[in-house]
Amino acid sequence: MEHKGRTFDVLGQLGSLRRYARSLVRNADEAEDLVHDALVKAYERKSTFRRGADLRTWLLSILHNAHVDRLRQTRSRNRRHEAAASELEPVLPASQDHAIRLRQVREAFFNLPEEQREALHLVAIEDLSYHEAASALGIPVGTLMSRISRARASLRNFEDTAPQTSHLRLIEGGGNENK
21-78 pLDDT, tens per residue? Predict the structure, then answer.
């Protein structure tokens, strides 16, 4: 993306980087740290960026690699955080059914295996082509397509099996005693 003659305008890519980082780490503060680390690496490796190449794909690839590096370095810390997060319940119940449903879909997305979540996020949310997403993840296009297919199948299965939640419940004496 060129802006006033500059081909290395990373500020225009911050939204994509933040969304992708949030999808990877599930925590806004950690996502910002990951984006920061990726931007530092990008500026350090600025000389390796080929003029005319897709800056967005290049930056998403650096962000992905920074995430993989962080996972390797902090695996035990992440397990403790995930265990603590899984025990937390929302303080206030959602006041509308669609808010509950959105939370369920979000949880289903985050319960996908990481490889599937990464692939689906880049294609469905960041609107990258299969080729661009595969390049950002450093995998063949066929592998990307397989991961996306499995992710979509898993989410369709979730849709088919998810209970329709309602915060209303019939309590005795509701006039349906003859059923």
Answer: 999 999 999 999 999 999 999 999 988 888 888 899 999 999 999 999 888 887 777 6
Query: pLDDT tens, 153-173?
Result: 998 888 777 665 544 444 454
- How far apart CA 54 and CA 9 sit, in angstroms, is 11
pTM of the model: 0.55
d(CA 7, CA 56): 11
Domains identified in the chain and CATH numbers: 10-77 (1.10.1740.10), 95-163 (1.10.10.10)
Residue 120's identity, in one-letter code, is L
And the tokens for 61?
Answer: 């690839």
Q: Taking the alpha carbons of 161, 166, 172, 178 in that order, is the dihedral positive or negative?
A: negative
The C-alpha atoms of residue 111 and residue 31 are separated, in whole angstroms, by 18
DSSP bridge pairs for 3: 6
Return the ∠ at Cα 113 (arms to 97 and 150), rounded to 5°.
85
